[in-house]
Amino acid sequence: MSRRLFYRLDHRHIFSNCEETMHIGTFSSYENADKVIDELVNQPGFELFPRSCFIITKVEVDDYLWKNGFISTQAGDKEIK
């Protein structure tokens, strides 16, 4: 059975000392998501932040993380590998 993948595009930045995450879209390839960043990076609001605020995440359908549980640290929860 072949793996089914998609690419999630988000924009993350700090606003009023809180992390804001905006889901931009879901794409069939990394290249398609990257093209959207090229379109948005100079648009109002987005132009105030570096390109590094755009995050592309590869997602495999019917897979999940945190399979071995997690531990809590001062820096946040960490997956047990």
Notable characteristics:
mainly beta
Describe the 3D structure.
The structure is a single chain. With 81 residues, this protein is mainly beta. The protein has one domain (5-79). It has 1 helix and 5 strands; from the N terminus they run ββαβββ. A 3-stranded antiparallel beta sheet has the order 2-1-3, covered by helices on one side. Strands 4-5 form a two-stranded antiparallel ribbon. β4 and β5 form a beta hairpin. The relative contact order is 0.23. The mean pLDDT is 93.
Contiguous uncertain segments of 5+ residues: none
Number of helices: 1
Give the strand content. 35-45%
Helix content percent band: 10-25%
Quantity of strands, as a count: 5
**Structural class, from secondary structure content?**
mainly beta
How would the global form be characterised?
Answer: flat
Alpha-carbon distance between the two ends: 25 Å
Assembly type of the chains comes to single chain
Rg to the nearest angstrom? 15 Å
Order of helices and strands: EEHEEE
What is the number of independent domains?
Answer: 1
User: In what order do the strands lie side by side in the largest sheet?
Assistant: 2-1-3
Average pLDDT taken over every residue: 93
Main sheet characteristics: 3 strands, antiparallel
